[in-house]
Amino acid sequence: MEIVICKTKEEASKLAADMITAAVKKNPKTVLGLATGSTPVPMYTEMAKAVKAKKVSYKDVKTWNLDEYVGLPGTHDQSYRYFMNKNLFEKIDIKISNTHVLNGMAKDPVKECEKYEAQIKKAGGIDIQVLGIGSDGHIAFNEPGTSLKSRTGVVYLTPSTIKDNARLFFKGKEDEVPTRALSMGVGTICEAKKIILLAFGKNKADAVKGMVEGGISQFCTASALQEHNDAWIFCDEESASKLKLRNYYAWRSATKLGL
Ligand code: PGA
């Protein structure tokens, strides 16, 4: 794991976006795994700026998103499909037919998840997977107690995730947050060739500590990334504040990135 610690989330988001821009320039057919939530928004803004400045094109890029709520159609303003359209896809030159989000309204959710895995495999796997992290250490919607080998499937949200998501979305109404989702599994995520995880704010400090310096455990599914050999963790000072070796990580990553 490479831990990049920046002064602000804006600085970290720009570095992460630059990494994606460079990868897409090098391979215009890059396959991206994308995430929703409040965390990746500044990075998506930077990615869109690079497209506007004609530094990069997404016309041959394909994307698969991490998760979607069960019971919300893509037209619902709290669905993850809607979120992606508004926060990224409508701002870059990607073909919408090349973007994939699990269908939360699928009649047969298990089949929907199997189809999703097969599509990713057919595309040659995910080149770069973008992730946030939950305050309980989850990646995608893989809550504590999920197998670290899990595949895309139906998952059940913890009360703390429902609370977090209601605070940031759903106008604060906890009873409107769906309790189930379709989510890529931890095993699925870890197969991505490269991982870019973003974590900002003091609310994420315990999760970041667990992910980086705790043992590998189902109790913090992000800790599975310790076994990935190309995982980049972008933090601000608050989210990195509980790391024992934070000065060492900051020096090492800055040296590797040539900062
Ligand atoms: P957030 O969610 O970006 O809205 O904090 C992250 C997550 O739950 O993975």
Main attributes of the structure:
259 residues, alpha/beta, Rossmann fold, seven-stranded parallel sheet, three-stranded antiparallel sheet, 16% strand, binds 2-phosphoglycolic acid
Can you offer a commentary on this structure?
The chain has 259 residues and is an alpha/beta fold. It has a single domain (2-257), classed as Rossmann fold (3-Layer(aba) Sandwich), CATH 3.40.50.1360. It is built from eight helices and ten strands. The chain has helices spanning 9-26, 41-52, 80-87, 109-122, 159-168, 186-190, 205-213, 246-257, and strands spanning 2-6, 31-34, 62-65, 67-69, 99-100, 128-131, 153-156, 180-183, 194-199, 231-236. The chain has a seven-stranded parallel beta sheet with strand order 1-10-9-6-2-3-5, sandwiched between helices. α2 (41-52) links the parallel β2 (31-34) and β3. It is globular and about 50 Å long.
